[in-house]
Structure formats: structure tokens, C-alpha cells
Amino acid sequence: MTVGRLKAAAAALACTVMLGTSGAAAARPAAESASVSIDLEHPGPTIEPAVYGQFSEHLGNGIYPGIWVGPDSPIPNTNGYRNDVVAALKHIHVPVLRWPGGCFADQYDWRDGIGPRAKRPVRVNASWGGVEETNAFGTHEFMDFAELIGADAYISGNMGSMEPRAMAQWVEYMTSPSHSSLAEERRANGRDKPWHLKYLGFGNETWGCGGEMTAEVSAMTHRRFQTFVSAPSQNGPMVRVASGASGDDYAFTDTMMRLAADKMDAISLHYYTLRGGWDKKGGALGFDDAGWAKQIERARRMDEIITGHSTVMDKYDPKKRVGLFVDEWGNWFDSDPKEDLGVLYQQNSLLDAVTAATTLNIFHRHSDRVRLGAIAQMINVLQAMILTDGAKMVLTPTYHVFDMYQPFMGATPYPVTIQSPTFKAGDTTLPMVDATAARGKDGQLWLALVNADPERAAQVKLGAEGSVKGSVLTADEIDAHNSFDHPDTVAPRPFAQRAGKNGLILNLPSKSVVVVEVDR
What we know:
The chain has helices spanning 3-11, 83-91, 139-149, 164-175, 181-188, 215-228, 250-260, 289-316, 350-365, 397-404, and strands spanning 32-38, 53-55, 77-78, 81-82, 96-99, 123-125, 131-133, 152-157, 197-202, 239-246, 266-273, 323-331, 370-376, 386-389, 392-395, 412-414, 416-419, 422-425, 428-431, 433-439, 445-451, 458-463, 467-473, 493-498, 504-508, 512-519. It is α/β, with parallel strands linked by helices. It has 2 domains: 3-44 and 414-519, Immunoglobulin-like; 49-410, TIM Barrel (Alpha-Beta Barrel). An 8-stranded parallel barrel has the order 2-5-8-9-10-11-12-13, surrounded by 6 helices. Helix 6 links the parallel strand 9 and strand 10 (239-246). The longest helix has 28 residues, at 289-316. It is globular.
């Protein structure tokens, strides 16, 4: 689906549909009743646009050819960047892009990726499949790409295998307006004006692939590196991001905050949603209702995990100066056995859309701490926004959720009280309905709802009067997905309803995501 067709669909939002009572939903069990109440008297901290960030690592086909095909490619491109991908990313206003890793970051020497591409060294990507890394996509290509799509740059610096001086010189190369040797080298390589570097990560997963450090060693290493790394005043404040915990390792966060909170502006958190364990994660397609429910249950754990880390952070930072950056998150399924395990390509279904919306709702509820997110990953890897195959491109259900949720970027959230029935599948019992509400920068009140039940529609009472209009994302099958031959199987459709004699009741189809503007 092209961005042009997306805009055409958006223009049709004034149309009215009653999806809860028509089509495939008519054959489903009877709709269940729920209610949502929005507390407009107690606004929360702003939902930072950076919560909708992206992550792109040198892994599989994420960079090559997901972003970069080179200026001589027959695939339509601008200076080597795929035109279709650039247009799609501009459409959803990607706020921040994290690069070059991931595990790749702590083996990356930034000097390998500057200068004439034909003369750049070819390295082995030891983190992901042992493939050859040409370094054709380096600092200039990334920083220019971030500017091209309108995203702030988030660099993950190598704190695992290089010394602080290397990181300091990289920052100087990118940001210095001076006539130092490094700044002049940047100019000689084609960039006169310094780039703006908003975020700098000090290492990645220091407890694992970033150095196998204990929390104490990680904290003291962070303190050492940040001492020597800074950006010039002309760059503006550069957010120093400490490498944080995985999942519910609250002890790691406690040590990092106790020993280094005064030397960071944010700390990262990584949490991947696994239906099973790391050895058997489950498939991206072909699951049953029990697998659907288990994946959503694991995604909902994000709320518990953020709460746990926030509680630890409050001990050392009660004023909440330090942000919690969930800069790797998303569904991780078993790789297709026909694919190279280092590629991490997986299909993206309606389930991914529901877990993405659920996660974004959780981020909204924690806007006091969660100020950046980066879904893993942007293109062709894990829970991707976009899939490509040669010159073909398809937008995933996850992409459509990020598109639908754009009004929440920079919005003011409100507490929401949800009265919802539950559903059970396998050994998992969950609430049917989840919701988030916020007032956009334009003053409009927005509401997003998720009906996680794979079978039953939900009739959600919102109030005595008013109307809503927006879009709904759903499909006939729980693992419905978009393919290159059928790119619109899971795509937003118009959704609008008005109050009737029983008040304003939203008819949510089973397994759906709905985003509407509310007029009362």
C-alpha cells in the first residue's frame, strides 16, 4: 500500500460504519458490554513523541537493502535511499532513529564508515551471522537519512570494545562547528554543517553482548566514558543514555541508579515479547487462540516491568529527572527454518498490531518516566514497520498502528477507567478491552481502544452523548497479514459512530484496534 493510498483512506474517515454488527463479525458470538470513563480533571505529563521511535541495526536485511540500495541501484532511490521507504517513514513522522545497534554497536568502529565508500574496509559482522559488512552505510549515510525522514539521531556508542577517546572523537566529528582536524575531515568527506546529535547511548546491553559486565562495572564504565564525551554548546543538550536492564532485572537498575544516576539523563530498558522462552519463542503465523492470548499476556507485562523499574528509579531520582528509554521492544518469534538465523526476518500479523497498540497504551500510562521508545526493528527485522523484497515494499499491521496513533505524539494523557469482561484462551485469561485517551496539541480529544478477544465483539459505552470518528484495524483471521501480492489484507478502515438512545456506544470488532477523535 502506497503512502498516497494511505492518505486517500484517511480522507474517507467521515464515512460511517458499524463494524461491531456487520460482515464477518455477525457470525461471531454475541458482543460483550464494557465501559470507558475518561478523567479530564487530572492530565498527566506529555506523551513524548520520541516514544514512537524506531531502531535499525546492521542485522539481516534491515539496512541493506531495507534502507540503503546505493545510488546506482535500479530500485528507485534518492542518493542511495529507497524512495518508497523514505516516503512511508515520512508519513508516520518517525521522531527518533537509533543506530547502529544493538549488539553490533559494541563491535563497530565509526572510522570504518566514513570516507569514499569504495575505500571503506569490509568487516565481518560477528554479532549477526558472520556476514560481510561493507560499511557502505556509515555515519554520513545514517545522519543524512535521519535528517531526510525528519527524525532525531540516536547514536549507540561503542563502550564494549573501544576506549572513551574513540567515542569522544566520533561525537566531535559529527557535531563540531570548529576547524579541528576531525571537523575538517567531516567537511572533506562532504558535510560542512555539523549534524545535530540529540541522543548518545553509552554502550548497549552491557550485561550481555556489550561486554558481559556486572552492574557495578557497567555503572563505573559509564561514569568513565561520559567524563570524556561531550558535544559542543552549539549542538544543544545531548541526552546521555546509560545502558540499562533487560526485562525485570530491577537489581541492575538499582545499581546503575545508585552509582551513576548523576551522570546520566536516561537509562535504557529492553523487553522482547516471547510467547515461550528463548529456545522456543513461537511462530509469527499459524498460532491458535491460546497462542494469540499468550503473546498479548506477555506484551501486557510491559506495564509491570516499567512500574518495577520506575519504583527503583524513584528511590534515587524522586523528581524524575532521569528518563526511562525502552529503546528495544517488540515481538520476537522463531525464525523461519528456511531463513538464515542471523537475518531475524519474521512476518507481521494482526497479532503484532494488537500487541503494538497495547504497548503504546502502556507507554502513555507511564509518561512520567517513559520518554523514548524504539521498536525493534524498523525494516525487515523482527517486528518491522516495513517489509521489502527487491523493488517491492509492503506496510505491516504494526506500521498502520503507528500511523493511527500519530495524534498521541506530544499529546496530554488522561487517566482512563475501564470496566471490561474477560476472555480465556488456553490457560490465559485477559481483559477484553484496553484503552488510552489524550488531548492532542490541537486541543482535540483522542481515544484508542484495543479489543483483544479473538472471537467476540465489544460494545463499549463512552457516555450519554457525542460522536466519534477515526479508523479501525482488524481482519477475519488472527494471523492475517499483508503480503506483496495482497498488501491491504490488514489496513485501516473508516470508523464513526454517534450517540443513540442508549448513549454513545462504540462497537469494537473482535481482535481490533480503534483510534477515534471524540466530540461531546
